Amino acid sequence: MDTEMRNNLTLFHSDAKNSEEDIFGRSQLQVWFEVSLGILMCLVALTGNILVVIAIHYDQRLNTITNILVENLAFTDIFMAALHMPFWIISLRNGRWIFGHALCQLVGLTQLIFGIASLFTMTGIAFNRYFNIVRRNLYIKYFSTKKITYIIIFLTWLGPIIATTPQLYGWGKIDYHALFADCTCVWNLPDVSFIITLCVMTIFLAAAVITWCYYTIYKTVKASGERMQGHAAKSNMKSDLAHKSGEKTENKVLKTSFVVVCVYMTCWTPLSVMGFIEVFGGENPRWAHLFAYYFVFCSSLTNPFIYGVMNPQFQRTFKKMFRIRENDVQPISSRTDFKETKNTMLGSKVVLVDDMPSTSITLLPLFRDQNHNASDTGVFVNVVAEAEEQSDVPGKSFIRKNGQAWQK
């Protein structure tokens, strides 16, 4: 009896020791490095996106059509950081899944829903900016109301649910992936139709749409700047101001477009490559899977910086929230987004955008002679800016008279 008890005790300790051993042979230093990096990413994503949501409601000037979509994007990343990433971090620590099959199915499903909803929202933001700048008439007619924006948001959530739930019914499969240290869709199934359909309809299609929208936006801004310079030249005016204005606008739009597209590709391309290598029977080292997953979660922590911090309007609100250089934050009654320049030979004025948000663009000004009727004095400039959306009245124009900005 004593011998049997000792054998059972030895077997118990052996099983406990084996359960503590890492299946990948990682050292404790490596384990805690991976876990610490995951925790840091989770906290940064959670904090950054919560600040974006708070800023939108803190300053009513940020309550615009585009920022409603930005807020939805922040919520997708908050849900990812709060409801999914903790399970991934625990699996990184233990080297295995410890929560059971049912929770694995749920966690894997939410990971796909939150990730795809984030991609679809970024696509919606790109569409919003495209119609706002390139197809202005269609934007005013169809996309300038909050009702349509809420419908778009509803579709950004409905689409991922429809795309991912077939895995629960047999088309595709969710299981724990040891190399990713997460419950996610299984890539190396005999029937690869679901994986190919999912990737094409989400990652690849979103990438194509986002790239095309921002490329078209940049071309439109560039053409607008060239028309502005050409009009100034025909009017025998000094074109330095028009050139500087067009160049400034081009650089801002180019920077925003470049950052959005490059960050998207950087975050999602490695995972797509790893997945398709598995689909076609190949193998990848664990470090490649790990870094691909880190890059995917990096999308959740970079979105607040791209869509929030890079926007001057958000910058002013963050300064006001944290009481940083309060003198630089002007009240809405005294702040204008315009800067008046010197008079031209014809007595006309050129109006430039002073603090243009990264989502804005100036169109070709209409130069008027001040010898016209009194009702025509001033310069009428159509500005595709966030200020238009704040009034909830699409297509507003701004008139510069006697140093003041008036809404038409």
TrEMBL record:
SMART domains, sorted: 7TM_GPCR_Srsx (SM01381)
| One term under GO cellular component | plasma membrane
Going by the UniProt record, its keywords in alphabetical order are: Cell membrane, G-protein coupled receptor, Membrane, Receptor, Transducer, Transmembrane, Transmembrane helix
Tagged with keyword Translocase:
no
The record describes its membrane topology as: Multi-pass membrane protein
Q: Where in the cell is it found?
A: Cell membrane
Cited SUPFAM superfamilies: Family A G protein-coupled receptor-like (SSF81321)
Principal localization?
membrane
KW Cytoplasm (keyword) present: no
One of the entry's Gene Ontology molecular-function terms is: G protein-coupled receptor activity
Q: Which Pfam families match?
A: 7tm_1
Tell me the ranges covered by the G-protein coupled receptors family 1 profile domain, including all copies.
Answer: 48-307
What parts of the sequence cross the membrane?
35-56, 68-91, 97-127, 148-172, 192-218, 253-271, 291-310
Which InterPro entries does this entry report, sorted A to Z? GPCR_Rhodpsn (IPR000276), GPCR_Rhodpsn_7TM (IPR017452)
Its family remark reads:
Belongs to the G-protein coupled receptor 1 family.
The protein here is known as: G-protein coupled receptors family 1 profile domain-containing protein
